[in-house]
Amino acid sequence: MRRGLVDGEGAVLAGGSLPALTRGDVAAALTTSARGVLRLARYEQLSGRERPAHERLTAVLPTLTDAALCRDVEVQQQLGVAFEPAFGAFTLNLDAAPEAGPPPVAGPPPVAGPPPAGGSAATRVRALVAVAFHRLVMDGVEPAGGWTAAPTAADWAEQLSLEEQARIGLLELLERGEPDEILDAIDLLYWVPTLSLAHSLVVEALAVADAARRAAERAGLCAIGPFLDHTTGCSYTTQLRVADAAGLIERALTGFEDSGNWSWWMHARSVQHVLAVMSRERLPDGGATMSELERLLLLGDWREGRRSLGHSVLMEMAIVLTSVGDADGARRIVLADGGIDELVLTNSDRALIAEMLFAAAVADGDDAEAERLRRVVEHMMPSPYVLIVRERMGALRSGVAVQEAPVVEDLGNGFEIFRTRWLLLSDAVRRGRRDAALGALANLDAYASEARVAAVRTRAVQLFRTPVAAAEGLLSTRQLEVATLAAAGRTNREIAAALFLGVRTVEGYVASALRALGLTRREDLATVSLPVSLGAAAGTSAEPVYLTLRQGQVAALIAAGASNVDIGEALGITEKTVDKHIAAIKERTGLGTRTAIAASFHTVLAQPARA
Q1: Are 550 and 571 in contact (CB under 8 A)?
Q2: What Å distances lie between residue 221 and 11, 15, 203, 216, CA to CA?
Q3: Rounded Cα–Cα distance for residues 204 and 105 (Å)
Q4: At CA 525, angle to CA 520 and CA 530, rounded to 5?
Q5: pLDDT digits (tens, 9 = 90+) for 505-563
Q6: What is the DSSP letter of 166?
Q7: Beta carbons of 76 and 38 less than 8 angstroms apart
Q8: Closest listed residue to residue 108, CA positions, set 50, 169, 57
Q9: What number of other Cβ atoms are within 10 A of residue 157's Cβ?
Q10: What is the pTM of this model?
Q11: Regarding predicted confidence, which is higher, 546 or 367?
Q12: Nearby residues of 282 by Cβ (< 8 Å), 6 or more positions away
């Protein structure tokens, strides 16, 4: 049984939402005591209301005489400063004795064993989390006096030590199973697995999130549920476990929407867009469009809360736009709230943004901007992720082919493995190295099939197709519908059945659409951007046809225009074996020609392989 709760607080924790604790009678009752103010600020911080939490903690801190409570409040306040540098200097000292008054700065001590008499275990873990996140958020931000010495491997080792101590400290606390301790650590149930994920420790993040979920259920803290769904869904996204991630992110969205927590809702929706662009699935319930997210960002309300949430949305929108080939749009979105130094992001996210902007600068011939962005990444802690980004940026600028560094596999980060293989493919295509490109396509397609990210397999094939400039004609609504379905690989008979038209009528619409777009071949419809959503217009797709991994690779290479000789060389198999795979593909799909296989690759063949 928990002690010291105000009227209604326990009921909301058990069956309500954290934002509900930050308003109304419960919030008013919490403000009547210093410990109540501390809990209220904790609920506000996690709900994304950083500014009122900071003001509340700053006001109460000078009034405290109890040393342990003073330490609790100070650490909670500094956790907010770690995520919002605009609140002032980060002054947390991990070695400080529990006494009143502001502490000086010092380095991190170890965390182990039960809490000392002067402080709580949750506060000690929270201090580690605050220091670790502060270092991540400030990594790569150019100091006012300019760059000095770059961080070293020892700096990253110290960072990993902070994460490990925080994770072990929380797990020990949860193992004790004391309801009061778990309530004291309610924000850490989210922040510690998120800290592990920020260090690319995905397995560790999932393990601690699972322990946190079980502890929250035992302690009656169901209000934390949407946050745990969110961090677990983000971890699954990193692993490219798209189906697993989608359900959790949808559940988190529902929880955030029901509680009116729009900052977190916006972030979860942007993650859903990232998942959608990988799987080409329609967003649940019609979903939010990119323009909807952009509108919410322009409203700017999130700037009064946790800016890092809004900036993460900018980053994820940029990933989506980059994935669909809109590099200019990605750059516009990423810089919507200022330059790269103004973005409140962890170092891996900052490195990703720097790489995106660097590629755009190189493409524009802006050497000064490219050099500035290179220096940003050079002055970041040398995590495995940052080292990968440095190598790719160097290769892009020097003209040397991008290499797949072994460290990418060691990360266990499926999203980054996939992204690197995509860059290998696009780099080879851009340089006209056809043999290398076909090999890279086979390598990418194998991983995409295993990860079940069908949409990206299709876009990989599209890299081999030369875009055709469309005429400036307009399509009628019906022409647009028919052309979209034809581009998705539907036959005239399938289109006729879907739209309740005659087959001859469909043939006429296809022909007129081709004329209006300045095209001569039906296959060319897949190489232009029709002014509608291909997935949305396609609606219900045909029953999926399941192929083996090798058959899927062969189909992808056919769609890329490879000959049997090319396919054999790319996959290391004989032409006779290639013929057998093609025969099997035709038998399973009912497609009679190579052209039909290429045209239907992204609607029929790009389905998850059955185990």
Answers
A1: yes
A2: 9, 8, 24, 5
A3: 29
A4: 125
A5: 888 888 888 877 777 777 777 666 554 322 333 333 445 555 666 777 787 778 777 78
A6: H
A7: yes
A8: 169
A9: 11
A10: 0.72
A11: 367
A12: 276, 535, 536
